[in-house]
Write a structure and sequence with these properties.
The complex is a heterodimer of chains A (206) and B (196). Chain A is mainly alpha-helical and 206 residues long. Helix content of chain A is 67%, strand content 2%. Chain A has nine helices and two strands; from the N terminus they run H-H-H-H-H-H-H-E-E-H-H. Chain A has a two-stranded antiparallel ribbon with strand order 1-2. In chain A, helix 3 runs antiparallel to helix 7 and helix 4 (71-93) packs across helix 5. The radius of gyration of chain A is 18 Å and the shape is globular. Chain B has 196 residues and is mainly α. Chain B has one domain. The mean pLDDT of chain B is 84. The chains are: A mainly alpha (206), B mainly alpha (196). Chain A binds chain B through residues 25-26, 28-29, 32-33, 72-73, 76-77, 80-81, 83-84, 87-88, 102-103, 106-107, 109-110, 112, 115, 180-186, 188-190, 192-194, 196-197, 200, and chain B through 20-27, 30, 72-76, 79-80, 83, 113-115, 118-119, 122-123, 126, 166-176, 178-180, 182-183, 185-186.
Chain lengths: 206, 196
């Protein structure tokens, strides 16, 4: 039983089994606020992914020089450095996306997933393992946001990534409700209940 | 933006409620809204720190960062200032105001990573508020946070006894309830011509 978890499992666990959004229920603010469309959801997911992977790698690189008592402020400085980088990169190269994401770009700095992985994983593991862990969690986060974005865009506008996929009749009178805040709450509630049902079935089998 | 004080207050309190419309600060919203008592305690701590953080970061941004051309350090400076501020407030309360500390104490450490506080300080800068308007905005936001979290805690206390299908127990039904409360708040949209 005490087998060391394989490298690959660091990567894969974040995608499904420990999906930050749908299983662990952390990082909810960007999940609900920025998933109005598929592009916004994936954009936010990728921005947070960059910060998560980069901060995991850097925290792991400096872990031997960071005294235990002041590790949290140092993690925060590392994370906010990368947040500032992505803030300015988006502002320069993706101004329309930046405008939609708004205050949620600088707020990546308080995303519990990122500080949580720095503290729980990267501070105790090597660079390569930390990179895989960050990549897996980032992928899980991006996928969850992307799926939310796709569903909400599909229902509220009849499009996916801006391409029309539903009949014209639906696009003329779509489910506008989904674009607003209540739609976001309802969708994640339903998704979470599906996840609960699936995990309960798995436990029954085991 | 030309808004008077009342519009800013009501806008932050109801129309653009920080939890239900802006989706900022959801972790404590779902974390501590299990009972009315804890919800009230958390809200008190949030209002208190939010006001202090608004003053400190506003002054720092306009008096130090802008003149020195260091605006790009905003994110790093704000989060560190808030973390330090929370520590000081905790130490001060523990030493000098025991009654308040015993009421708010356990919620203070959680506030450092509460995006509501950091979000409000960023919004104050982004909206270009002066210090008075920033104060009004953060008071309105704090009150809005309190209203929703206490209201919602009462709903969840009732939900705990309700017959709910197994897959929906816990978080999912809380989200559905939040959806309905948020739908009600959507009714405030455009109230007094406030849209920002």
């Amino acid at each position: 039983m005490n087998k060391k978890p394989s490298r690959l499992s660091y990567f894969t666990s974040g995608i499904v089994v420990e999906n930050p959004v749908l299983i662990l229920m952390i990082g909810l603010c960007p999940t609900l606020a920025t998933t109005v469309s598929a592009r916004d959801g994936f954009g936010m997911g990728l921005a947070a992914s960059f910060v998560l992977i980069a901060s995991n790698v850097v925290v792991s690189l400096v872990r031997r020089f960071v005294p235990n008592s002041i590790r949290i402020p140092i993690f925060i400085i590392i994370i906010s450095t990368f947040v500032t980088i992505i803030d300015y990169v988006l502002q320069a190269y993706q101004p329309s996306l930046y405008k939609v994401l708004g205050v949620f770009v600088p707020l990546i700095v308080v995303n519990c997933i990122i500080l949580g992985r720095a503290e729980a994983f990267a501070y105790h593991h090597g660079v390569w393992d930390s990179f895989l862990d960050g990549l897996g969690k980032a992928l899980g986060f991006t996928l969850a946001l992307g799926v939310m974005g796709i569903i909400r865009e599909l229902l509220s506008a009849g499009t996916v990534f801006g391409f029309a996929v539903t009949p014209a009749g639906f696009r003329e009178s779509p489910v506008l409700f989904m674009i607003f805040a209540p739609g976001a709450f309802l969708l994640i509630g339903i998704l979470k209940s599906i996840v609960n049902r699936l995990t309960a079935k798995k436990e029954e089998k085991a | 933006m030309n808004l008077n004080a009342g519009q800013i207050l009501l806008g932050a309190f109801l129309v653009n409620n920080i939890l239900l419309m802006r989706f900022i600060g959801l972790c404590p919203f779902f974390g501590v809204s299990n009972a009315v008592g804890t919800a009230t305690g958390m809200s008190g701590a949030v209002i208190f720190v939010m006001l202090l953080a608004t003053w400190v970061t506003w002054v720092l941004f306009h008096v130090v960062l802008v003149p020195l051309g260091l605006v790009f350090l905003r994110t790093a400076v704000f989060i560190l200032v808030i973390a330090a501020l929370v520590q000081f407030v905790e130490m001060f309360l523990r030493k000098n105001m025991r009654a308040l500390y015993s009421a708010l104490g356990i919620y203070l450490p959680l506030i450092t990573t509460n995006c509501a506080i950091l979000g409000v300080t960023f919004l104050n800068i982004d909206y270009g508020f002066n210090l008075l308007n920033a104060t009004i905005f953060s008071v309105g936001t704090g009150l809005g946070f309190t209203l929703v979290i206490v209201l919602f805690a009462a709903i969840r206390e009732r939900l705990a006894d309700a017959p709910i299908s197994r897959s929906f127990k816990g978080y999912p039904i809380a989200f559905v309830a939040a959806s309905l409360v948020s739908l009600a708040f959507l009714g405030f949209a455009g109230l007094f011509g406030i849209a920002f």
